[in-house]
Each structure stands twice: as C-alpha cells, then as structure tokens.
Amino acid sequence: MIFLDTNIFMYAAGDQHSNKDNSVKILELVAMNEIQTAINVEVIQEVLHRYTHIGEKSEGIKLAEYISCLMDTIYSVEMIDMKEAIKILHKFDVTSRDAIHAASCKNRGIKKICTYDRHFHKIKFLSVIKPAEILKK
Question: Which pTM does this prediction carry?
C-alpha cells in the first residue's frame, strides 16, 4: 500500500509542469488497479482549501469529487492520528499537514508515500517514493 500525497493530485490536475505527466500516469495506474494506494480525508481537504484560496472553488470541488471516486481507500483522521501527528511534530521538522499524513500512514501500517515533497524524507519510518520510481517498475 502506498499513500498518495496531495501534490500528486494537484500536479495531475494543474497547468503544465515538469511533475504533471508522471502524476497523471500514477493516477492512471490507480484507476486501472495496477497499484494499491490510499489517502486520508485531509488530502481532499487540502485540495478544497487550495482551490478555494486561489478563487477556483468549482474546480476544487470537481477535483475533490474525482479523487473521492478514484480512490478505493480513503481513511478518516481520528484522534489517534492527531495524537501521533503531535508526536511526529515534536520529533521531526515537518508541517502539521505532513505530520497528519505521516500519522495516518503509521497508524495503518503504510510504510511508503508517493510524493514530490522533500520534507517526508525527515520522517524516518516512511519510505518516500517519487512517481518516476513507481513508473520504472
């Protein structure tokens, strides 16, 4: 199981960028059930927050609905996750959002995260995989 970070969806849906093509390909693999992936509800919240913030709320809603349909495994964020996120924040220099994702992974036995975010390298119990690495396999 691989946790997909928010930036995979954002690059796939966004304007042309060097990370767009690989992000789209990852989501195609997800759609074809070629790789087992998961997210938490915070990924969807981050998408909605970002698109609303930049004045593109309707596009954010469309992307959130797409993600909700695409992903078979979407975890809730529970108090146990928040407690673990606080521990992670004490231990590692990462953002609160990254800590919540990492906590979701830890509490569900997920050891890999697909992301472009370098901050996850600081979290020792997670293995960071860029989309290009998955696509090589």
Answer: 0.95
73-128 pLDDT, tens digit per residue, is 999 999 999 999 999 999 999 999 999 999 999 999 999 999 999 989 999 999 99
Contacts of 134 (CB under 8 A, 6+ apart): 2, 26, 29, 35, 114
Q: Are 39 and 4 in contact (CB under 8 A)?
A: yes
Residue with tokens 């919240």: 45
Judged on CB neighbours under 10 Å (0-12, 13-18, 19+), 54 is exposed
Set out the domains of the chain in order of their start, with CATH numbers: 2-136 (3.40.50.1010)
Q: How far apart are CA 67 and CA 44, in angstroms?
A: 7
**Token pair belonging to 99:** 């800590």
Distance between CA atoms of residues 28 and 22, nearest Å = 10
Q: How far apart are the first and last CA of the chain?
A: 15
In 10 A of CB 105, how many CB atoms? 25
